[in-house]
Amino acid sequence: MCNWGQSPFSRFAKICVYSQKHPISFEMTKREELLQNAALREELRKMQAGEPYDAHTPEMYAWRDETKKLLRRLNVTEYHEPTMASITRELLPNSAENVYVEPPFHCDYGNLIFAEEGVFINFGCIILDGGGVYIGRKTLIAPGVHIFTAEHPTNADDRDKWEMCRPVRIGERCWIGGDVTICPGVTIGDRVVVAAGSVVIRDVPSDVMVAGNPAVIKKQLNK
Questions:
Q1: Rounded Cα gap, residues 94 and 116, in angstroms
Q2: Is the peptide bond before 214 cis (omega within 30 degrees of 0)?
Q3: DSSP letter at 119?
Q4: 3-state SS assignment for residue 87
Q5: CB neighbours of residue 77 within 10 Å
């Protein structure tokens, strides 16, 4: 059973903004080079902490541009090409090595997606992962699913200046149906089925099927 604990990073190696999994290279990557900038590090810290942050600084644009370059490589690569796995690993450095992503795929950062072994993400998914998206093992994400951690103030003046993020957590062995939307701050338990087209705006316990807009429990599962 998934047990997320008190920290959103409790089930995974805690990271800040880039992976420590791979062997150290003497050549600094572009992302590591960008992280030398204190202003970028501060906005990323606030973003991951759920504090108001400015997503529109030059440093933040440059950070997301590096993700867009990886996404372009992923989305023009055929699944059978040997480079597919290495591009996916570079885009999702904090996910298990056997996570599979069907292009086209879009995300804000990539390194803030924490997907465990056997996770499958089908065509056309969009994950705004600024607050962290945690997906348990063997969970299936159907085509067209949207997972959002980013949100904006309802006050227009504040909305012009900043945004904030809340993490999304999805348990193990779930099935998230086609065109589902999962909103910021939602936690979904283990072995949950979310019916196609649902909009999930509140937490979902384990072993249930939910459906609708907003999604509500329709029946118990796995009795």
A1: 9
A2: yes
A3: -
A4: helix
A5: 17
Per DSSP, what are the bridge partners of residue 53?
A: 163
| Phi (first) and psi of residue 120, to 5 degrees | -120, 125
Tokens for 40?
A: 């970028």
Element (H or E) spanning 211, and its range? strand 208-211
pLDDT on residue 198: 98
User: Domains in the chain, ordered, with CATH?
Assistant: 30-220 (2.160.10.10)
Q: What is the pLDDT along the chain (223 residues), one digit of tens a residue?
A: 444 443 333 333 333 333 344 443 445 678 788 889 999 999 999 999 999 999 999 999 999 999 999 999 999 987 778 888 899 999 999 999 999 999 999 999 999 999 999 999 999 999 999 999 999 999 999 999 999 999 999 999 999 999 999 999 999 999 999 999 999 999 999 999 999 999 999 999 999 999 999 999 999 999 8
Q: How far apart are CA 112 and CA 47, in angstroms?
A: 11
Among positive and negative, which fits the CA dihedral 70, 96, 35, 64?
positive
Report the DSSP beta bridge partners of residue 170.
135, 188
Q: Give the DSSP H/E element, type plus range, for residue 143.
A: none
Residues designated as active site: 152
Q: Residue 155: which H helix or E strand, with range?
A: none
Report yes or no: 88 and 101 within 8 Å, Cβ to Cβ.
yes
Look up residue 147 and give its DSSP letter: E
Q: What's the token pair of residue 42?
A: 């501060």
CB atoms inside a 10 Å sphere around CB 44: 22
